[in-house]
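Prompt: Have a read of the protein record below and flag anything odd:
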Amino acid sequence: MLTSSIFTVLASITSTLALPQLITRNTNYTLPTSTSVGYYQGSTSAGMNCFIEVSTGILQAGQCNLISVNAFSISRAPNNNCTFTLFAGTSSCDPSKPELTSSVKTLSFPIDAGNGTQCIETGVQDGGKFQKASGIWACS
C-alpha cells in the first residue's frame, strides 16, 4: 500500500515536470521577410527617382541578389528601418571575390521606415555582362 502511494506521488510529480512551460513573448514585433522591388535602366537625382522600369520582383531578407540593372526601387517597410548592402564588383555578395575588377566596393544604403520606395543606383549599365554587382536587403 505504501509502495503504491509513493508510486502515485512520483508519477504525479514526473508528469507535472514533463509538461512544457509557457513562455510569453511580444508577438507584435516582426521583421519583414520580403519586399517588392522595381528594376530600372537609368536613374535621376541621386536616389530620388528611378527612370525606366524594365521588370519587378521580390527581395527576400538576408539573401544575396544578383544585380543586372542600373537602378532599382525598394519598397519601404512601414514600421522598420532597413538596409540594402551593395557589393559592386562581384555577383556573390562576397567582398573577397572580385570579378572582372581588382576589388569589390561595398556600399550601404539605409532605407528608412515609411511608405513609398527608394531608388538605388548600382552602376551596372551593361546588363551584368562585364559590370558585376550583388546585394543583400535586411531590416532591424
Q: What stands out?
A: The radius of gyration is 25 Å. Strands lie at 34-44, 49-60, 64-67, 71-75, 82-88, 105-111, 117-121, 133-139. Helices lie at 2-18. The first strand starts at residue 34 and ends at 44.
